[in-house]
Fold:
Amino acid sequence: MLSEKCYHCHGPDSGTRQPKKAPLRLDIEEFAFENRENGKPVIIKGKPADSYLVELIHSDDPEVVMPPPESHHSMSAREIALIEKWIEQGAEYQQHWSFIKPEKLPVPLQSAVIASECHFIVLLVNAAVTEAANVDAAL
Ligand code: HEC
Structure:
């Protein structure tokens, strides 16, 4: 749900990430719980009522509400309730991913990690082969 409604502006793409002066990422746990300019994270685990994020998704003010009206995304009462429930239960990222379509989020992240690991292994193998070739050449 966050991925569909929020990641365009608070997700992996730094080009569209908002707000421009202090971009907020909600797709990675580490950033989602970082202290913001006011010294507090936007999600306070276990405390939806104290979480700024919840305040924003509830807002009636079109200037403030998240997602912004011009994004043509909006949250249904049920979706808001699900987010609150999720925060109340500790805002577990793993568990949260199970709420959303699995192909949407972790996959690109995982494949990026896998790709970089593969790359590293290829480098190691190449280095070993080159070294072996050098040893051969020296004999
Ligand atoms: C179309 C882009 C866009 C989408 C989609 C969007 N946001 Fe935002 N978000 C912004 C912008 C722009 C700001 C900065 C608003 C400001 O400073 O007045 C912001 C600010 C925030 C902040 C406050 C950050 C801070 O530290 O001040 C939170 C929390 C937030 N958004 C949560 C969400 C959530 C949750 C969703 C999805 C339900 C969402 N946003 C969807 C553009 C977006």
Q: What stands out?
A: The mean pLDDT is 83. The chain is about 50% helix and 0% strand.
